[in-house]
Amino acid sequence: MTERLILKELCRYNIGTFADIVYRNALLHADAEAFVYGSQRVTFSQFNGVVNRLIHALGALGVRKGDVLGILSWNCLEYAVVYGAAMKGGFIASPFNPRLNRDELEYLIPYSTANTLFVGPELVDIVHSLGPSLAGVKHCISLEGPDAEMHSFSELVEAYQPSEPDIDIQKDDPYLIFYTSGTTGVPRGALYTQGRKLDNTRIKALEMGVKGEDKHLVALPFFHIGGDSHVWPFFYVGGCNVIMEQRSFDPDAALQLVQEEKVTDMHIVPTQLVATLSLKDFDRYDLGSLKRIYYAASPMPAELLKQGMQIFGPIFSQGYGQTESGPQITSLPRKAHEVLDRPLEEQKVLRSCGQPSVGVHVRVVDKNNQDVGPGVIGEIIAKSDSIMVEYWRKPEETRETVIDGWLHTGDLGYYDEKGFIYIADRKKDMIISGGENIYPREIEEVLYGHPGVSEVAVIGIPDPVWVEGVHAVVVLKEGATFGEDDIIAFCKGHLASYKAPKSVEFVDALPKNPQGKTLKRKIRSKYWDK
User: Fold this and answer.
1) Cα dihedral sign for 39, 45, 48, 52?
2) pLDDT, tens digit, for every residue of 241-299?
């Protein structure tokens, strides 16, 4: 019998690569569950095996290290396997938002230079309709079902052995392209190497305090950097990820999974918390296993956060970042949230996005790139080993965004004497009315304290006198009957009068992207695109 040299085996892949982590877990946590998806339960050993099979299958199709693998799908187990293949095969994963329309995909897929496209079952027809725009795509692979014009994922992987691939993976190898949400224009691809994404994974694992026995509910999409970056810290430490099946967030289904799977961690966006808190029979679920609720992707109104903590307890933590930043820039840990029983001055920290994360430097600068003092609003810039390498195939835009190693986020904010950072707004969302700078988020925070407001977005609209006027777009709570005068008067009671909305519009829902971010560009378009 051949002696197994497990320590030597553990040295197979280079340190600082995801290939090393996938293989390490397969050896040291072979029988522990890595992923749960519906009735499918996959161990770390099984995950490593199917990843290897896919790498061999792609090699047989002529796909080589450095080639781009496009993914157009909703979350599923196969999605995670494609990521695994990029980790160990040296490919570049390029996930696309499945809500994009035909015109957007006609731009984005060729821009990615993907030569292979993995397609979810609901997206097969739209891919077929793209025709000549997919000329660069040599192979289309159907993820969860057969299609006459595509390779079958299951048939491909079943045809090959799970042996380890002979591919040299380095930490500086390109690994992933994440696309900006397009809330301000055409999406751009943020390119990451193996080492940069793994550095962010380590930061999040450390700051969240996750352990091998923890179980994470994957409620955000894999194609968004926030959803993706929360999955791999659990994988990194040998924990489990439970992937939700539905295509949009269902709070009942989420809480049912928490109960059934004894989930310890959830990652949500504010709109998902709103949906969860609106449940009528919330108390019927056993949520005793929950240790942490992490929120990110868009600002969390302080009043909404307080409501969440009154229901779930002080188990919330926060991260701030963006597609280009890794995403981790700052962290507000669970301990910092334990202030509800303290004076209002101490509760102010709930309005912050935390302090700089471990391994991340953050500054706030003026238009001349000079540092400003505490309490002064400027642009937030960040530097770390986790930020993107570049915008994919856009060198000029890269130079405008990453200057001397510092990522210019386009977010406006300020900091206090303890280093807590407060987001004021996006540069492009700031309203200049009568020469005064007005930050919509400040007004939105106030309106979330109104008893009848469920959701709100504040924008600037054309004004014949003030150039821009403050306009509030409001979603009322069920049964609420407040009018425009009520909303404006409420704001004037909490803000300087020039900041209060001059007009109010009531709608049934705010337009959002899949990550829960309100599409202010879409709201503004009916006022400005004329």
Assistant:
1) negative
2) 999 987 778 999 999 999 999 999 999 988 788 889 889 888 899 999 999 999 986 66
Closest CA to 517 of 227, 280, 260: 227
CATH of domain 436-528: 3.30.300.30
HEC per residue, 436-455: EEECHHHHHHHHCCCCCEEE
What confidence score (pLDDT) does residue 519 get?
Answer: 85
User: DSSP 3-state assignment of 80?
Assistant: helix
Residues 6 or more apart from 267 whose CB is under 8 A from it?
Answer: 216, 217, 218, 219, 220, 226, 227, 230, 293, 294, 295, 296
- Are the beta carbons of 406 and 379 closer than 8 angstroms? no
For 87-118, write each residue's pLDDT tens digit. Answer: 999 999 999 988 888 888 999 999 999 999 99
CATH superfamily of 201-427: ANL, N-terminal domain (3.40.50.12780)
**Could you say which architecture CATH assigns to the domain 6-34+44-169?**
3-Layer(aba) Sandwich (3.40)
Return the structure tokens found at 511: 């337009």
